[in-house]
Structures are given as C-alpha cells and as structure tokens.
Amino acid sequence: MTAVPYLGLLTMALLVFCLIDVITADDGGVRHVPKMAWLFVVLLLPLIGSLLWLTVGRPIGAGIWGGSEPSRPRSGFAEYDVRPGRAVAQSPEADAEFLRQCRARAEEQRRVERERRRAEGS
Q1: pLDDT digits (tens, 9 = 90+) for 14-68
Q2: Which uninterrupted H or E stretch holds 46?
Q3: Are the beta carbons of 61 and 5 closer than 8 angstroms?
Q4: Is 83 left (phi over 0), alpha (psi -120 to 50) or beta?
Q5: Among 81, 86, 63, 73, which Cα is nearest to 27's?
Q6: Can you count the helices (H) and strands (E) in the chain?
Q7: Are 32 and 7 in contact (CB under 8 A)?
Q8: Of 12, 30, 45, 103, whose CB neighbour count within 10 A is largest?
C-alpha cells in the first residue's frame, strides 16, 4: 500500500477544515489580509493556502473550532467587542470623566470655529 491516496484524503480534510474555519472566523480577528482574500487563497492553493491560513492568517487565540471568547469583559457594543485593543471603561466614574472631556473638547472646537467664521465674515 502506498501513502499517496491517504495524502489526498488528508489534504481534502485539511482543505474542508480550513474553509469552514475561514468562513466562521471573525472579520476583525483575521490577520494580515481580509477574510475574502484568505478564502480565495485556501480555495486556489488547497495545501499551501490551508497551511498559510493556519500559521499566518488565523485569529490569535483561536481554538480548534474557531475564535475563542475574549478574556476582557464584554462592553455591550458589538463594534468594540470584535476589535482587539479597544478600551472598555473600567468604572462609571472614568467613563463619566471621559465623556465630560469629550464634551468640553467639542465645545472648544465649536467656539474656535464660530470665531473663525466671524473673522472671515468681517
């Protein structure tokens, strides 16, 4: 018996696993190139594309069947949960202070813009 038929079955199993993994991976966690590009790489180059996906493109910390739960607390806003490195308020006081600073900065920018428009109109 030769190992060639088994190599083909192994490649096919790896291809199917990687295709499912690419399709179910989070868009925000995929590394280096967009998810659709990884899908094409895995489809066009089954063995090499699958190995590249597993070593280079797969989200960091992904378990056997896809992405793992983030270790930080959920923020309640999906757009912050899918992007690693996004800050989540640690306390209501820190959040309130941040919002106060944002409002003050926005008001300052509005004031500067009003003064600029008055200067241009004069």
Answers
A1: 999 999 988 888 877 788 888 899 889 999 988 999 898 888 888 776 665 544 4
A2: helix 46-52
A3: no
A4: beta
A5: 81
A6: 5, 0
A7: no
A8: 30
